[in-house]
Design the sequence.
């Protein structure tokens, strides 16, 4: 299987993932980064050195319209996915992937969302939860479809509100989720059946 990673901001999920897991064992073909933090970029460059490709998506957000930036990003992403014949893309970024890519790569693009869907979809999910009366926070890994965080759910994690100290209390749970899902894909254990997900159990 050929994997790729997409991340934004501080790329913390990806950086933290490889602090506890070997890049040789979980080797992506490329990492696409669209953030503007020099520290994160330096960490990703060191991580990818002699291992995998690192691509930086840059846009002039002051001069380019949002529509132009979105098109440019999706054009670049599609080119990379096709050129490298990627099987699965893991998303920890904030750009919206367009319907063309979603269709071409149906059930092959996995998003990690910081809420227990269907609760609190969209932006600022943790803030939405903090402003509600919910007692349970968490994350959802799901295949991307054309809705807003509505795709088939693969895995969810939960944490009690009383144990949430900061955003990292929730977001750090995504690291083990990535490990599990990556391994499940390698082992061909994820089956999509009529928009539902079945995880095949291993023999005991």
Sequence:
């Amino acid at each position: 299987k050929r994997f790729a990673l997409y991340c934004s901001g501080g790329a913390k999920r990806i950086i933290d993932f490889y602090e506890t897991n070997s890049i040789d064992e979980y080797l992506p073909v490329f990492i696409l980064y669209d953030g503007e933090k020099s520290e994160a970029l330096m960490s990703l460059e060191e991580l990818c050195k002699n291992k995998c490709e690192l691509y930086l998506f840059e846009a002039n957000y002051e001069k380019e319209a949002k529509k132009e930036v979105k098109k440019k990003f999706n054009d670049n992403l599609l080119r990379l996915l096709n050129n490298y014949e990627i099987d699965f893309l893991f998303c920890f970024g904030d750009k919206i992937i367009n319907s063309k890519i979603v269709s071409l790569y149906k059930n092959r693009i996995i998003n990690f969302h910081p809420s227990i869907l269907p609760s609190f979809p969209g932006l600022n999910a943790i803030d939405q939860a903090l402003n509600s009366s919910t007692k349970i926070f968490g994350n959802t890994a799901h295949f991307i479809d054309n809705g807003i965080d509505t795709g088939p759910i693969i895995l969810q994690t939960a944490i009690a509100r009383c144990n949430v100290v900061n955003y990292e209390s929730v977001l750090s749970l995504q690291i083990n989720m990535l490990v599990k899902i990556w391994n499940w894909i390698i082992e061909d254990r994820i089956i999509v059946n009529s928009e539902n997900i079945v995880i095949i159990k291993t023999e005991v």
